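**Backbone description:**
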Amino acid sequence: MGVYSTKISAPKGNSGMTSVSSHNDDTTVKFPDIGFDFLYNGVNCRTTINISGNSWIGLTGANEQLKINRRDAGADNIYYAKETINDKPTFRIRWEGHQSYSTWGILDLVWELILFNDGAMVLVIEKIPNTGTNSFENPTLGTTNLTLENNKSYAFIPQQDQGKAYTVQEGSYIQTNIKYLMVDGNDIKHWETISLSYVKISELPLTADKFQTYGDDIYHKERTGITSPSPSLKIWSSLAEMPTPKVTQTIKPKPIIVSMKDDIPFSEAYIKDIMNAVVTLDNTGNGIIVFIVSTDSGGSWKAWNGSSWVLVDITNMQDAKSKGMSVAVLQGITEAQWTSLGLSSKKIKFAWYMEVVASTDVLKLKQIRVNYNTN
């Protein structure tokens, strides 16, 4: 694991590197085994990385997935080197050339790309004329357009497993020996892979020995085994100085069944029966909402299944979810079908099951309106 830093990485130059191509106009060449597994969009790119004289990288083959001033350019020299940073293996690529294939020997486009064994990358720009396309095919997010400048570096850090959903920021990336522990009240806990939960290893205080003996190589977002409402994630590193890691926790609400507090009465003599029901809500994404109804103040609940009213167990989350009526079904119930529910009590109550599938879903019920048929 590593952390993002605002510090700009400087190019290392070609000293000691191995040449893989020279005087390359439009040719695509393949790098040898980089020496470690590198996952991009779920693909292990250990032996599939290509580079072109037109200034692009194909991580999974001859696909233009990272474009650095991509145009009809020319590479005077392309190099690679297997290196280590903080005892971790890296693979560094260096491209030296020019924006136009006709200007050999005039180096106005020079860059380096460092690959880390956790899927992160750092692009170091030495020179760039910005006369071509700068972009990155970002798995799950689509094309990310890049703004690149001379003497700057850019960190590409995956936010999802297997090299997906990269953040791209000006700066660098530090991969080092980082360990994580969780402080739960007065207890120190680490993630146990057997029970898939946080397990107590000792009580406070924290020491470097505890991190080195029990610390996790990655932090786990799960809260199984945590009892405190405000646990603290603790981080240790062998580095004397380390930028503060940024940990973002996104919380997705659990599914819930909500019931109206009171019945909706319609005992007025001029009201004959229910004509229809109309729902107003915001539902952006893949949120799920289904409805059930009661005519006996919540003593029993029913849903229309297309041909009849069926009983629903409101205490059973799965039963309410599977039998509940969608908005379309609820709004499509006819006057005769409402009457077949049995409305002699002259009152009705609604309940609904709500579930958001992703943290980005928006699901808000604004109103249920019941329209009546009158005498």
The chain has three domains: 2-175, 178-237, 256-374. The CA atoms of residues 108 and 129 lie 7 Å apart. Residues 2-175 form one domain.
